[in-house]
Amino acid sequence: QLQLVESGGGLVEIGGSLKLSCVISGGSASTYAMAWFRQAPGEEREFVGRISSSGGHQYYSDSAKGRFTISRDNSQNTVYLQMNNLKPTDTALYYCAASNSPAGYGVWGQGTQVTVSS
Q: Would the pLDDT of 103 be above 90?
């Protein structure tokens, strides 16, 4: 059974950077497209960006574009979210999710908390 474990969250100042990791186990990472989502307190879950199974294609939300970068290392079964120039509005629980079908993202991690201090 596929499992995802996020790490790398923490407290950072405005304008700072963090790099989140999502380790994939129980399956072959190279067969899954991956995405990052986030959810702030009292808010709906929000799409951040996604990366193709090979890593050759990425797509970002408007709020992430230009500041966040998704990458992956399939040899390490890991997907990354590099976040730069962080803002208080980026404070949220960040989740990675996996998809290998048109049905969408069926496997989710538990999340890692990112807090940007103002």
A: no
